[in-house]
Amino acid sequence: MSKFETIKSLVMSLEDDFTKFYEKGNSAAGTRVRKGMQDLKTLAQEIRIEVQDKKNTAE
Fold first, then answer.
1. Is residue 11 a contact partner of residue 43, using CB atoms and an 8 Å limit?
2. CA-to-CA distance for 11 and 38, rounded, in angstroms?
3. Most CB atoms closer than 10 Å: which of 9, 18, 48, 59?
4. Domain boundaries along the sequence of the chain
5. In the prediction, which pLDDT does 3 show?
6. CA angle, corner 42, sides to 45 and 7, nearest 5?
C-alpha cells in the first residue's frame, strides 16, 4: 500500500510543473513532468507485478 501512497504523492508534486508547462510554456517544467511521468510508469509497473504475484500465490 505504501507504493500507492508514493504514486499519489508523486502526482500531486507534479501539479505545479504541469501548470507551468501547459499554461506558461515553461520548457524546463515540461522536462520535470516527463521525468515524473516516467517515475510514475515505473511505480505502476512494479505495483502490477506485485498484484499479479500476490494473485497467483493466492490461488
1. no
2. 11
3. 18
4. 2-51
5. 87
6. 90
Write out pLDDT tens, residues 30-52: 999 999 999 999 999 999 999 99
Cell reading at 51: 498484484
Q: Letter for the amino acid at 54? A: K
Q: Can you read off the three cell numbers belonging to residue 40?
A: 510514475
C-alpha cell at 26: 515553461
- Name the residue among 5, 32, 3 with its Cα closest to residue 17: 32
Question: How far is residue 39's CA from residue 32's CA, in Å, rounded to a whole number?
Answer: 11
Which residues are CB-contacts of 36 (< 8 A; sequence separation ≥ 6)?
10, 13, 14, 17
* Rounded CA separation 37/54 (Å): 26
